[in-house]
Inverse folding.
């Protein structure tokens, strides 16, 4: 029944996506799962506030009505992304890259299935909260006695509420089975990342960068062996929001603006780090709105986060629960800042933990300066560096003993940022190859193995 809940999540998310949106089937399924998990968690939150409970029929009835309306309005258009999609004969290199993407999933899956919830944080902060929500049938039971627990009650609720939905569909608590949601977020992360990489670079390059992401050891470790954490889901919404805000600036389509704001809101609804990320995305979205002649009501998308995060803030404060966040540059300690910065940099460039991810991010920044990349490019590395800076500033508050704090969380913080960091190299590579294709023939280098330089253009003599 847990697997049925996951399938229902994809179906609900599919209904929320535009019918004729240009997206291949694997990418659309990935976006559908991401949208479905977010929407269901928000619905669970709203139903609880309304006092309607979480009976599966009550949860699913609005979606059945929405599905009927979508079928009436769009009909077969709902399957438009499936019909035009046709299999193409892949090259041997593409097959190899696809196998490299699947290999980590096949290798790491046994860790998720065979090991219990071995991480204290994953169990105490996320899964215990989901279990309490489901068994109480409401959030207020847990929040009313939050002093009895050490499970960070002030953290956002996407993962606990979505897991409670899976329990409701299952008809009982099943912690071991519910852990599968973390690998599902991992697969969706790969699909969303590949969608944007393929828009910015060649199909083969997109597969190569996706294979790089799939093989990052710490990202795999969090997604599978430590299944139950919110980091993988957070990375998914980071990548989706960054990709859509980049597309909003590049194409100017309002659907990309809406998707960027909603994905960033989902990140903020997943973890506190997402709220810091949300601020940057809203600034980038507003910058485009200020420069373009769009309808005034498009500004309303920037207010979308308040519709969810506002009520959650009121609920949290009504139970006298701290947000467990931080205010930048308040309680700032320069000495601790230096310790945290050195530790995070050392870990980021440790290839045994993150492969070449952060080295490629640094190389893309240097390459963009050399190539004089478009100003738009800097949004992608800027978002990754923004999150990195926010993490260092959080550590610099000295809320906990710094060595213990870094030892227990720094690896996960960098794992959140790693997929975001790989977007900049993918976009820059695509821009570089596009420039090579668009370059005049006399500016292109000679083909490899050829000793003949490109011929200069000659001017034909015209008769007088």
């Amino acid at each position: 029944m847990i697997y049925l809940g996951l399938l229902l999540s994809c179906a609900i998310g599919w209904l929320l996506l535009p019918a004729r949106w240009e997206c291949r089937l694997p990418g659309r399924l990935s976006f559908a799962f991401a949208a479905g998990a977010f929407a269901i968690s928000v619905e669970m939150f709203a139903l609880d506030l309304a006092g309607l409970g979480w009976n599966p029929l009550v949860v699913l009835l609005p979606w059945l009505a929405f599905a009927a309306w979508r079928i009436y309005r769009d009909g077969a258009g709902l399957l438009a992304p499936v019909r035009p999609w046709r299999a193409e004969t892949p090259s041997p290199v593409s097959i190899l890259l696809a196998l490299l993407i699947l290999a980590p999933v096949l290798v790491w899956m046994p860790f998720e299935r065979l090991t219990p919830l071995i991480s204290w944080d994953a169990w105490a902060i996320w899964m215990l909260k989901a279990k309490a929500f489901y068994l109480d049938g409401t959030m207020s039971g847990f929040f009313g006695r939050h002093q009895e627990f050490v499970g960070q009650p002030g953290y956002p609720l996407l993962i606990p509420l979505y897991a409670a939905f899976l329990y409701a569909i299952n008809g009982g608590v099943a912690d071991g089975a519910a852990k599968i949601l973390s690998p599902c977020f991992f697969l969706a992360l790969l699909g969303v990342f590949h969608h944007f990489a393929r828009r910015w670079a060649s199909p083969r390059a997109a597969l190569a960068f996706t294979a790089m992401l799939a093989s990052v050891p710490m990202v795999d470790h969090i997604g599978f062996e430590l299944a139950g954490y919110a980091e993988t889901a957070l990375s998914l919404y980071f990548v989706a929001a960054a990709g859509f805000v980049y597309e909003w600036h590049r194409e100017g389509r309002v659907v990309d603006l809406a998707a960027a704001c909603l994905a960033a809101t989902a990140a903020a609804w997943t973890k506190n780090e997402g709220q810091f990320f949300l601020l940057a995305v809203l600034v980038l979205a507003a910058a485009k709105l200020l420069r373009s002649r769009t309808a005034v009501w498009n500004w309303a998308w920037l207010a979308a986060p308040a519709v969810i995060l506002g009520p959650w803030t009121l609920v949290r404060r009504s139970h006298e629960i701290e947000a467990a966040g931080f205010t930048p540059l308040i309680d700032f300690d320069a000495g601790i800042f230096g310790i945290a910065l050195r530790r995070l940099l050392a870990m980021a460039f440790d290839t045994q933990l993150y492969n070449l991810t952060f080295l490629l991010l640094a190389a893309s920044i240097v390459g963009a300066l050399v190539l004089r990349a478009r100003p738009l490019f800097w949004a992608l590395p800027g978002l990754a560096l923004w999150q990195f800076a926010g993490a260092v500033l959080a550590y610099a508050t000295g809320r906990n003993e710094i060595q213990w704090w870094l030892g227990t969380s720094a690896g996960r913080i960098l794992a959140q940022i790693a997929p975001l960091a790989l977007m900049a190299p993918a976009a820059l590579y695509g821009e570089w190859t596009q420039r090579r294709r668009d370059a005049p023939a006399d500016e292109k280098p000679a083909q490899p193995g050829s000793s003949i330089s490109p011929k200069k253009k000659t001017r034909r003599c015209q008769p007088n």
Residues 446-464 have pLDDT under 50 and may be disordered. Residues 326-435 form one domain. The CA atoms of residues 282 and 302 lie 6 Å apart.
